[in-house]
Amino acid sequence: MARPSLFNESTAEEICIRLACGDSLAKICRDDEMPAYRTVMTWLRQNEAFRQQYVRAREDQADADADAVSDIGERALNGEIDAQAARVAIDARKWSAGKRKPKAYGDKVAVVGGDKTDAPIRHSHSFDLSAASDEELDVIERFIRRSANAGGDQGGEGASEG
Asked: Which residues of 25-53 are buried (b: 16+ CB within 10 A; e: fewer)?
């Protein structure tokens, strides 16, 4: 049987379901009954509805990747898979989930004030903080308090006494 090359709604739906369940597009396209990778890329360029469905499937794939992390860890603890192989697989799944859904699975970075060795941020304009989140305002407030308590450039956290 020849690989499909003309757009087909049921094949497109199957691709998106498999993506959302965690399969890679490369793996899906290796199946003889599925279109070639290049064909899927063409469909994405030419079909807006499929492109939107594909984007949602890729976002859902982040949840599948995150779920797989605990499954892989469990299997490694039970001795079903090698711990080093599990670590590689978990790191890959964590990276993938974090890239696809950064708000849910991405690394969260909290910006807090540094010490006296950090270069100060200088800005000659006023800042509009009306759109800042409560978390961002809390970070700014802690930084200002820390700076005020340290006496400006005179130390602060990490400064040595005497």
From this structure: beebbeeeebbeeebbeebbeeeeebeeb
CA pair distance 146, 143, nearest whole angstrom? 5
pTM over 0.70: no
**What's the alpha-carbon Rg for the chain, to the nearest Å?**
25
pLDDT tens for each residue of the chain, 162 residues long: 678 789 999 999 999 999 999 999 999 999 999 999 999 999 999 999 999 999 999 999 999 999 999 899 999 999 999 999 999 999 999 998 888 888 888 887 656 666 666 655 555 556 667 777 888 778 888 878 887 777 644 444 444 443
Q: Please give the C-alpha separations between residue 111 and each of 39, 123, 161, in angstroms, as whole numbers.
A: 44, 18, 26
